[in-house]
Amino acid sequence: MTMLRFGCAQVVIDRLDPLVNPGQIPSAHMHQIVGGDGFNATMTTNDVANTASCTTCAFSDDFSNYWTANLYFKARNGSYKRVKQLGAARQFNDDFSTKIDGGVLVYYVSAQPGQVKAFQPGFRMLVGDPARRTPDPAMKRQNCYRCYTGPNFGGDFAAPCMDGSIDTVGLPTKPCKGGIRSNIAFPTCWDGKNLDSPDHKSHVAYPTSGPADFLSLGGSCPSTHPIRIPQLMYEVVWDTTPFNDQSMWPTDGSQPFYLSYGDNTGYGQHADYVFGWKGNALQVGMDQSGCYGASCRGMNTQVIDKAKQCNVRNIVREDLNGWLDTLPGMQM
């Protein structure tokens, strides 16, 4: 097995979505974006790696873009404040990922090195449904939240979505002493033809056994989607600790956190991906065994200070850090 696990610092926070709302300025809700500085409102080019000059990711040949919705705290008086993010727990002697300060931890897993085909230029996909407000039992191993039981990533001792005592399919309903971690994993089978589809989902599929736990990666690919692709997963740590005082929570004690499109269940968690690795850099990693963390033979890396110099100018001018009367875009 090979598991590339590496951090990407934020490249921008903006109300743009070139996958679902290409060319729309602003898009419906706020996103946090990491990766290459080629991110823009349209991203129509097939080879994103050629439009970017830098990346916020540990692997310096990865100009892909990864994005998710932001998380907000709703105070008792009805106002909202964006929840900031933390770095990742330290593993595999990877200091880079602990210092991303608001970014995303990205995983690419190959359970069968040499038999997994890396994504191709122009490839993009979406996982999750922002309109969902009820649990999807089939996705409980692929889309979850972890309530850290103590500071410094307390409770982080099980594979993603695997510990029922601290992992939930919806947002936790109690204060989390160390913050909230969210994980979302993408399908691992491709039709071998289409780089995208109208819903950004139909060209990919889960194995015939359906979504499985992250490390087992499920069974065989269906005949309609016979090509095994890397298991891609995002991990975000939300620093909810400034809001753990329940005197700030709703008077009925319900949980006060909302994803940026107005979802306080968490069931609508979703993630977007636009592939942008340079040349065959990702395939080099997927063909090797025993690569773990943010290093792999033949793959180029960079230091965190250089990564944080990479950024994209905000297009939609909005208050990102203050208290707001409504979630950005919800008044539209």
Automatic annotation (TrEMBL):
Domain DUF1996: 17-277
InterPro entries hit by this protein: DUF1996
Record-linked Pfam families: DUF1996 (PF09362)
PANTHER family from the UniProt entry: DUF1996 DOMAIN-CONTAINING PROTEIN, PTHR43662
Protein name per UniProt: DUF1996 domain-containing protein
